[in-house]
# Entry
Amino acid sequence: MRRYVWTNALATSAAIAIAGCGGGDHLNTSGPHHVSDIAIPNIAAGVNFSFDIGTVSGSQYYFTDRNNASLDQIDILSKTFVKSIKGSGPLAFTGLGPGPNSQAGPDGATPVGDLIYVGDVNSVKVVDPAAGVVTSKITVSTTGLRADEGCLDPTHGIFMISSPEETPPFATFINTATQTVVAKVTFTDSAGKPTAGLEACRYDSASDNFYVNVDGSTANPHGELVKLPGASIRAIPKGGTQNYATLAGVAMYPEGNCDPTGLALGPGNDIAVGCREGTTGAPLLMQIFDRSNGALLASLNAGGGDQLEYDPSTNRYYNAASRWTSSGNASTNGACSTASPCTPVLTIVDAGNRSVVTRLNAGNNAHSVAIDPASGLIFVPYSSATAPAGCPSCAANGFVNGGVSVFAAK
# Structure
């Protein structure tokens, strides 16, 4: 039987009280707090800012920006915007595009040596951040759908990126030395049905396994954590395709009523899963599993986010919980709206005792987070208070125009 460990979403103790607003958190310097906000070109009050994953590389923070069709760069120590890195011609990022989110980009961003691999429609764009240019692209499909989030095996020089809206969804594996596709893994479950999609992935060098959140399968309709052995990926003939359920050593761990998003490797064998439940009124969870066997170690009322990061220097998880609510339960169908509003927060969880440390107010749709371990600064992009709809508290909390919030870990 699984043992569930709960943290009360409405607890009033100082340890998990929601901290102050965007305009004044910098006055509290005794713990995690808001520091400042950074303006982004063409993002202002009333603009719906469409952004995705952020990452730290060296002394710089980068995140994907669909409004400006760019990878945006921020200098960490000065906390200032540096530039928007854009491609041209066939190397240009798609931007908002003509259709839904599945046809927009850029999406995921992953440091690969001195480069950054960026998911985009039909491809991975390779960015040289020092030169400020897109140097090449690696085609992964021709369907007009995005390659989304990725992760790197630095030991063997293999980059994995998911194409979640394909039928069936698939992951592409790229040799980073040659920047060529070496294998693909499709996601049709053991019942013969395409899985519901793919979310964040992580590579664990200690065990030589890739882990990826699957949105849903026949056996686990609200999500499963899939372990893909690296040796089995490398055994696929070059240029070949294999279904995940047939890989030697593959494992599927049920995530319950989760609808997973973010994923982070924690200390020891811990792996944390961010849930963004689509079931109205369901508790918003962050679940911590033993990645060696899938055992559930803790289930915290700390979900509602997208990107989830672990920082070993503080031994804490950071969850960009854009769909958190005042009750700690999912809004109607899990989506923020005027009738069923959200109260976005940056949730910080102690990875040692697996408990919530604090929640800091964040801006509208603040679903992306990255932390610099050297400075302890945390970067969280957000949209304007009125777009998209569903965050009536955002303006009052000081997050009006959209941009990037900077928080301090301590």
In short: The first helix runs from residue 230 to 234.
